[in-house]
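Design job #97: recover the sequence.
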């Protein structure tokens, strides 16, 4: 009877450990994806400023696009 209890606890610990490891992988993947999206957004903003002629021109073009 003691062996069955020990075996059940061992499986439970293994399942919990696997669950924690898969959660860490998921959190890591979401973190990497969010960093890539943030870098992409910064690159898009910089390229928009370069193509419009500077930050003041970018803001004025944005206001023009929204208002009219």
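Job complete. Output follows.
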């Amino acid at each position: 009877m003691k062996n069955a209890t020990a075996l059940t606890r061992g499986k439970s610990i293994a399942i919990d450990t696997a669950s924690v490891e898969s959660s860490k992988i998921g959190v890591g993947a979401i973190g990497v994806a969010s960093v890539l999206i943030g870098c992409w957004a910064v690159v898009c903003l910089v390229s928009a400023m370069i193509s419009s002629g500077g930050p003041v021109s970018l803001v004025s073009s944005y206001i023009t696009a929204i208002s009219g």
